[in-house]
Design brief:
Blueprint (H helix, E strand, L loop, with lengths): L16 H9 L25 H7 L9 H16 L6 H14 L2 H11 L8 H13 L5 H13 L7 H11 L9 H16 L8 H15 L5 H4 L2 H11 L2
Helix pairs in contact: 2-3, 2-4, 3-5, 4-5, 4-6, 6-8, 7-9, 8-9, 8-10, 9-10, 9-12
Length: about 240
């Protein structure tokens, strides 16, 4: 299947029950249910097609100097998809973060189109980087954000620091007027945020606490999130933030 970043703006409406069952049965580094990709075992010594162009992209300092490497990376993503290569979530996160810094919206659209069925092979940090960069550059791939929200609701413990929780929460609040299930996503994010807020090793940066609190309040204000407002978990998070 060729990557088409402009396809299906209303794709969330078209997700079938079969898609949902496939999503729930997925397995990967990110846990179950975050995507539908089932990679084949990589032959020994075989490197990812996207590794070289991603590393080249990370050396670029200006958007006008990224034209050639952007096209090379797009072609590499197509090759990786064609060959059904195992996903390197770290490389996807690096590419997304750099594309976001350079404002490469077209490249981010391609990264989102490649990533959404493969999120279960990514860690929380990579998902947060992808979502944050896509949101920053105004990418509007409903399928991508649908599966990001699903990842948050089903695999919240993949976000191993409050910074990643705050990043993905801020990205999802850009979808307040969409059909993405933000209530379920923020219930999961609140669960892991509470774990980090109660951590005894180090204090949490005030920036991360403030960003997550702002995003949570925006979602709680939605009329269809009454169950989230009534959740004990959310009350505990707010109390933990107040005492942080």
């Amino acid at each position: 299947m060729a990557i088409d970043p402009n396809e299906g703006e209303s794709a969330v409406k078209a997700i079938t029950h079969k898609d949902r069952r496939s999503q729930q049965n997925g397995r990967g580094r990110g846990g179950k249910g975050a995507g539908q990709y089932n990679p084949q075992k990589r032959p020994q010594g075989n490197r990812s097609s996207i590794r070289k162009p991603v590393l080249a992209l990370c050396k670029v300092t200006r958007a006008d100097g990224a034209v050639e490497v952007t096209e090379t990376l797009k072609a590499a993503l197509l090759e990786a998809e064609r060959a059904n290569e195992p996903v390197d979530g770290g490389l996807l996160g690096m590419a997304a973060a750099q594309a976001g810094r350079l404002g490469l919206k077209d490249l981010l659209a391609t990264l989102c189109a490649y990533s959404w069925p493969r999120l279960n092979s990514c860690g929380g940090r990579e998902v947060a980087e992808l979502a944050a960069a896509a949101s920053k550059c105004g990418c509007d791939d409903e399928r991508f954000f649908y599966f990001v929200a699903t990842y948050c609701s089903q695999n919240p413990n993949a976000f191993t620091c409050l910074r990643d929780v705050a990043l993905v929460a801020a990205a999802l609040t850009r979808k307040l007027d969409s059909q993405v299930n933000l209530g379920a996503a923020f219930h999961g994010l609140s669960t892991v945020a509470l774990h980090h807020l109660r951590g005894t090793l180090t204090g949490q940066p005030i920036r991360d606490i403030a960003e997550f609190f702002y995003s949570l309040m925006n979602v709680l204000g939605l009329p269809n999130n009454a169950s989230l407002c009534a959740a004990d978990m959310v009350s505990e998070v707010i109390l933990a933030i107040a005492s942080a």
